[in-house]
Amino acid sequence: MNVQEFLHDYNRGDRNFSATLLHGVDLSGRTLSGINLSRADLSGANLKGADLTRANLEYANLTNADLSDADLSGANLVEVNLIGSSLQGANLVGCHLERADLRTANLAGTDLRGANLTEADISGANFQHVNLASACVDGVDFAGVDLEGTDTSQIKTNTNTGGLSGGVSRNWVSWGKH
User: Fold this and answer.
1) What is residue 66's three-state secondary structure?
2) Which CATH architecture has domain 1-152+168-178?
3) Model-level pTM?
4) 177 pLDDT more than 50
């Protein structure tokens, strides 16, 4: 599918583009809220400044994509591949990033308030000046991650695992009085 067909179908009201091949497509600045791009190949895509609020990108391939300044608030990014992608300045408030692959991704200046990063792989990622207020970071290894300017003082290990088996730690970022 080429970009003109894609945009034509979206503008007609179609929202299901699951498993669509859109490698290297330029959708910068486009409004694509509520779109289903699960399992889609968007590797190398330019989505800079795009509105992807409430989008379903579960299992999508966004390797080396540019999502700088994109609005992904409330998006489903479960098990998404974001290796080497730029999310600099993106709005990821309330995103579901469970088991997302963010290796070597640039998340400098992103807003991850209330996001769920459970078991996400962030090795080698840039987390400079990231807002992690109220984010769930269960099973996330911050070793080797650039956290300059990011307040990590509130990352606490909760000894109450809520009955989870396997010794999974409950790491949450929380702000406020304890």
Assistant:
1) strand
2) 3 Solenoid (2.160)
3) 0.85
4) no
